[in-house]
Predict the 3D structure of the following.
Amino acid sequence: MLAAMKRALLLGLSTLLITGCAANPPAHWAQGGSPLDIPRARWVRGDASVEIVGDGRVLVNGEHKLTIDRAGRIVDMDANPVALIERDGRLIGPDDKPLGMAGVWSASLPGESIAWLAVLPSGEVVRYGDEGVRSSMGAWVGNCMASAPAHQTCMIVSHLLGMKFKDERPYNPGYVPGMTPGMGGMGGVGLGVGLFH
């Protein structure tokens, strides 16, 4: 009897610890955030390929990393909340952690008011350095420009993935401004390693 009580107590404590450490979804998760369109599009980079497929899955080098829905919710491949885009452009993460702003045309890092990243009407993804120096991070091809909500979806994906690898290694452009997107080298260096784990 005593052994059974100890097991029950240990089980209860471990359950409490596990659930106590779990991150809470953003405050408006159930109702959703800003309405989005889900375009079929591909972000062509020299070191990776990022694809948004029609069901909202985001593939990095062919591997499923995120899913984004029409209500502005972004989850990882295990369906854990990653972010919610609010109607005012704020990206909110689990436990209401600010993840920056992502509008239709540009995004800013958490706590910053100046854009660090933009998706131009041509589809080019531009990163702004500390001194305002522009550098290309490839280009989106496909239906990102079909509507403002579709363009914002591409901006959100660029921002979330860009934050994950912006400091990991220098960008090796396979896309050069003025070149036809998709014609650059698609090296396959493991961009997907460690994302959202």
In short: The mean pLDDT is 80. The chain has one domain: 23-165.
